[in-house]
Amino acid sequence: MLTLYDAARCPFAARVRIVLAEKDIPYEPVEIDLDNRPAWLYEKSPVGLVPVLEEDGGFVLAESRVIMEYLDERFPEPSLMPEDSAERALVRLAIERFDDLGAPYYDLRRERSAASAEGLHEELARLDGTLGERPFLSGADYGLADIAYVPWILRAEAMLDVDIRPHASLAAWRDRLAERAAIAQEIELLGMVAAARA
To answer: How far is Cα 112 from Cα 186, in angstroms, rounded to an integer?
Structure first.
């Protein structure tokens, strides 16, 4: 049995929850209070961050990007990566470039200013352009790149009051993803997190 050291509010942990749900992998969740992290967490993750995945045999893995790809390889069905090696490389590149979205998202979270909002909308416009050319960030099919980005898009809307509707391709992508059970579960959880923080 897998154990996921998790925090409902954490978008990085959301990535792993979504992959686990997409693959219907059973796991034991252990909720971590990010405001009062237990000392033992640092034994599993030296920087004290979630998510952390642990297997019964003692194998421990941190970092959401690495965990997502590990789970896709360890539990290959359904695959969340393209078969073609060039397309897989492009998915990895999209995930590698995530910080282009993450940085302005966290800027806006820290400081609700017009400049911060504009910075985030610039990145949303770039994603919108990408999604105008193909249905998913992962290419022709839904996959890990989509999972890597969607937690922040959902949180930008739910917690930062960002309106993504002006970015029509991005909004349509979000709507397509919301039809997936794994994403719908995350949206429901996010609603509970937002309500608890209100």
So the answer is: 24
Peptide bond into 51 cis (omega under 30): yes
How far is Cα 112 from Cα 160, in angstroms, rounded to an integer? Answer: 8
Clarify whether residues 40 and 64 are in a common domain.
yes
**Three-class SS of residue 35?**
coil
Nearest residue to 41 (alpha-carbon basis) of 78, 4, 77? 4
Do the beta carbons of residue 82 and residue 76 sit within 8 Å? no
Q: Round to whole Å and give the CA distance between 21 and 10.
A: 16
**What does R_g of the chain's alpha carbons equal in angstroms?**
17
Regarding whether 90 and 174 lie in a shared domain, the answer is: yes
Instruction: Tell me whether residue 10 is one of the annotated catalytic residues.
Output: yes
Same domain, 54 and 116: no
pLDDT in tens, 23-47: 999 999 999 999 999 999 999 999 9
Q: Which residues contact 192 (CB under 8 A, 6 or more apart)?
A: 8
Catalytic residue among 10, 16, 124, 153: 10
Domain that holds residue 92: 85-180
The pLDDT tens digits for 156-186 are 999 999 999 999 999 999 999 999 999 999 9
One domain for residues 23 and 46: yes
- What CATH code is carried by the domain that includes residue 56? 3.40.30.10
Residue type for 87, please? E
